[in-house]
Amino acid sequence: MKQLGYVAAFLLLLSLGLWITGQTAYMGYTLVFMFISMSLYFRSHPVLKNFTFTIWVLVFVIASLVWPGLFGNWFGFNLGLLIVPLIQIIMFGMGTTLNVKDFSRVIKMPIPVFIGLFLQYSIMPLLGISIALLFGLEPEIAAGVVLVGSCPGGVASNLMVYIAGGNVALSVTMTSFSTLLSPIMTPFLMKTLAGKMVPINFTAMMLSILNMIIVPIVAGLIANKILYSKSKIYNRALPLALIALTGFVLSLICIFINPAVFGVILPLKGGLILGFALIASTALLKLVIGIWLKSPSNWMDRALPFISMLGICLIIAIITARSSEKLMSVGMLLIATSIIHNFMGYILGYWIARAARQDTQICRTIAFEVGMQNSGMASGLAMTVLNSANTALAPAIWGPWMNATGSMLANYWQKKKGE
Fold it and tell me: Could you report the per-residue pLDDT of 39-55, keeping only the tens digit for each?
């Protein structure tokens, strides 16, 4: 794999040469292949492998700038319509990692959970509006910065806490509860802080979060039961076949919902269709892979992270392709806001928890939970509720930056366990 490192270095020098000589029209091509080579090299490195995902995000971002049409329409189909389903699949994946214990754990450690949730929904949105005003960002762009700060903690925080030697159970609980609070807290914060920047419909945003985030997570919780329960009902062919059949039938019923009859749940239609289909698919795949083929039971754990990472890369590329001109003009400014916002989230999360006399392990956990946001959710809300690709730019930049800094901080703390 060392050869790939040499290839990446050569392509970097070639890119610099093209830039110096003014041949920038070809630079995008060399950068795309440079980052692909770099990601493959990083994957084989014991330390750098944690940055592989961030590099792939950069591949998709540059590709979307070089070939914007590739992420625009395919055979007349608008790829922007894939953003919500992709986010729903990612949230379903999050749900499959949860169980009832993750929610009941708040009873055992209420103070750290309360501190984390309070800081999540106070520090980050207030930092967002302050930074947006300080940099004098135009309304739509500024609303995107506030939106990122108003979203719950990101799923990636759980992995970073694990690498850093933090309290993983607490991290999962905090992510779960901040996500459950998001249908109320995110629209409320956006209406309060960004209502003068862009029109905010509280009800529409709340229903969109329920459809895009909460329903898929609930479906994931059910899938978790199907996958990992030791009960006989989930480990026999006939019950699994019935669950799969029921799920697919319910999904079809939701497709043909009559608005006059089911008007109350109509806004959740997309989430219900996909949720039932994913539950059915989980049962069917367990029947085939687990029962008939007798393969290892962790096949879902292997598949979903890859699907989630690919989904995030596609979402960022689709958004970037639609706002490439605006990104070229405000890109560096947005990168600066993301750096400050993210960095201050880590710092304030850690030291306020320290001031509240929490131990080092909990302080590190809270730092990640506060500093790492669900940028995918922010992107989806920007595109579907606010109907603004410009507002989605801040979340698109936040995502890769957050993962890069999270990886660096996690590896640093891993070497300083107990300090």
Answer: 888 888 777 777 787 78
